[in-house]
Each structure stands twice: as C-alpha cells, then as structure tokens.
Amino acid sequence: MAQADDSDDGMDEFMEKFKTQKYKNAFTESNWEEEFDKVPMFMKSAPEQIDPVKHPELACIQSIIHDDDRPPEEQAKSLKDEGNEYFKEKNYKKAIVAYTAGLKKNCSDSDLNAILYTNRAATHFHLGNMRSALNDATAAKKLKPDHIKAIIRGAQCCMELRNYAVALQWCDEGLRILPTEKKLQELRATADKQKRAADRDARKAKAKEKKERNERAVLLAAIKERGIRLLKPEQPQRRGSDSEDDGADVSAAAMAELHLDGLSTQEATGAQVYLDEQGVLHWPVLFLYPEYRQTDFISAFCENSSFIDHLVVMFGEELPPWDTDRKYYPQNLQLFFEDHEKGHVYEVDLEKSLLSILQHPGCSVKAGTPSFIVLVKESPFCKQFLSGKKVQRLK
C-alpha cells in the first residue's frame, strides 16, 4: 500500500507541474496544420525526396516497406541490432527470433553470421537451452575458428551439461588462440577440477558395482549349494520329468528378483537375504494371518533358527491388538507353507530350522521372501481354510 501511495503522490506532483508549466513542444494555432502534415498518417501528399532528418517516421516506414530491396548483409545487420536490443531488455525469446531471421538472410559475411550464431547461443544459454546454445557456438566457431566469444560460450555450455572433458577441449582450443584470456583460464581450471571429481566418482561407482556383483555371485552360490528354489513373482518355475534335479538350478535372472518385489524390496523394507561373515544366510520372512488379514515381517530370520524361537517372541507376554479373542499363543499355533506349483499345503514342525524347511522339495522362495501361513490349531477358521486342500505334515 505504501508503494501505491508514493506512486499516487508522484503523479499528483507531475499533474500540478503540468498545470503551471506550458508544454514546450505543443502545437500552436499558427503551426498545427504544418506539424500535422509531417505525421505520415495525416500527410496530404508524400514528398518526392524523403529526408530522414525532417521526416524520420516516414523514412522508417519506407525502410520497412523496401527492406527486401536492401542487400542481405544490411538486413542481417539490422536484425542483429534488433536482437541485441531485445537481449539487453532480457526479452530472450524475441531476441532468438531476430537472430534467427538474420541467419535466414544467408548473407555472405561469415563474420556477421558467426556473431549472429554467438549471440543466439548466448540467448539460448540464458534460457537454459544448453544443447541449442552449444550447437550455435559450434556453428559460430566453424565459421570463425578464432572467435573467442563463441569458444567461451561453447565451454560454458559443456560445463552446464557436465561434459567436462569436452569443456577442456574448448578451453584449450581458445587458449591456443589467446593464452591470456582470463575467462577461459578460469573455465579450464574449474573444468579440470570437476573432471577429476567426476572420474573419481565413476571409479568409486564402478568398484562398488563390482563388489556388489561379486557379493551377489557368492550369495547365489550359497543358495544353490543349499538346494533352495527361487521363483520369480510373475513366472512360477516350470517343472519337468527331472524337476528334482533342476530344482537347485537358479538362473541369474531369478536371483535378480531377490530384491524386486513387494516386501522383499530393499526400498520398501530395507531388508533382503544376505550372507554373514560366518557364511550363514539371513532371510526376510513374511508371516500371514488370513483369519484377520494381518501380516508380520521378520527382516533377518537366521536360517539356523527355529520357528518356535520367533513365535515365542511374537506371541509371548503381549498378544497383538487384532487378536480380540486372545487365542494366538505359541502352543495354539500351526504353521504352513504352500507348494505354489502343486497346490499342496505343508504343515511345518515349529521346532525345525528355517533352512530345513526351505530345503524341502515342495518349498520355494518367491521374490526373495519366504512366506508362511499362521493358523490357530483346530479353530473353525483353520478347518474352513484347510478344507479341500491336500495337507501334508513334514517329517
């Protein structure tokens, strides 16, 4: 509001001054017809010879009408000047239009065309169009190899595009032409520093990738050695006449699924199967409670631990809030896993280790996460859930 008041006060002051001081260039009763006749819109007839000093407006209109009659070099220069004015006003889009129109004149002055390309490169640069700016700087340098401004702009574009090696090439080329150019010296120092950092980061990333690849190979070998079958989540493994022999054969593609689906993804849970320093596998394990549509997730279930060890902790002193009937005590529970191919259901001995269950021919690990169904023994829901299913107890 204060700014608006200041503006209003300034206008009032101007109007008061306007009332007391006569406008010096105003038409008079004696010369208004003569003055009006100088305005192109009100001229009764145009003069045979147009003097730009006496008739600047008419000269401007004439130059526009007969612009195509001028040599291409003059037209391109006018458009370059027009683009420069737009550039100074930060009206970059109109500046690009003007420079482009100048280049379309196809004049024979290679230096002028190089300037048009360089200026358009600068405009694209300010708009963030780095690829277009680099293309224009390259075109300018091709027309005028010693054009330092084009070389500086090309180096700047490469820096913005993080192509430090090419930026160094631009700087070195410019410094061969003008070794004392401070801007190129500064750009080269920065490009060299950034390139060294980028190369270092690339080496670290490559070493990390190699390490992870080796760790993955060791992990895969450990799983294969144990005879544990992996299934891709979208494609259950097919079994032929020699399925028992093929069960331990896990492809690299299947291994890649160990961290790519649902609760097995590292992004979702931060957990995936890993091999510790003692060569023991630790699995992310999912427990399903279909009666209440609930789940539990153990991020690192040691393969040598038994199921009862975990159930005692999970259903020990404090039962889950969804167990409204207070019946999920360890001694009341039964654990099952499904054979995804045959549709059989196997009851798990709670005293068994995770490894012994995963090694069973009917057990498979889908998406890197073993999953087990937890039911209350002899409950109505348990009987209903298992009805119609072929249940087998593991020996």
Explain the overall architecture.
By secondary structure, this protein is α/β, with parallel strands linked by helices. The protein folds into two domains: 67-197, Alpha Horseshoe (Serine Threonine Protein Phosphatase 5, Tetratricopeptide repeat), CATH 1.25.40.10; 243-393, Ubiquitin-like (UB roll) (Roll), CATH 3.10.20. The chain is 50% helix and 11% strand. The chain has 16 helices and nine strands. The strands form two sheets. Strands 2, 3, 4, 5, 6, 8 and 9 form a seven-stranded mixed sheet that branches. Strands 1-7 form a two-stranded parallel sheet. A hairpin with a 6-residue loop joins β5 (333-338) and β6 (345-348). α4 packs parallel to α6, α5 (92-103) packs antiparallel against α6 and α8 packs parallel to α10. It is elongated. The chain starts with a helix and ends with a strand. The model is unreliable at 1-11, 235-249 and 252-268 (pLDDT under 50).
Low-confidence stretches: 1-11, 235-249, 252-268
Instruction: Report the CATH architecture of the largest domain.
Output: Roll
CATH topology of the largest domain: Ubiquitin-like (UB roll)
Residue fraction in strands: 5-15%
Radius of gyration computed on alpha carbons: 41 Å
Shape: elongated
Query: Could you tell me the mean pLDDT?
Result: 83
Amino- and carboxy-terminal Cα gap? 86 Å
Helicity, as a percent range:
40-55%
Structural class determined from secondary elements: alpha/beta
- Overall CATH class of the largest domain: Alpha Beta
Taken in chain order, the helices and strands follow as HHHHHHHHHHEHHHEEEHEEHEEHE
The total of beta strands comes to 9
User: In total, how many domains does the architecture comprise?
Assistant: 2
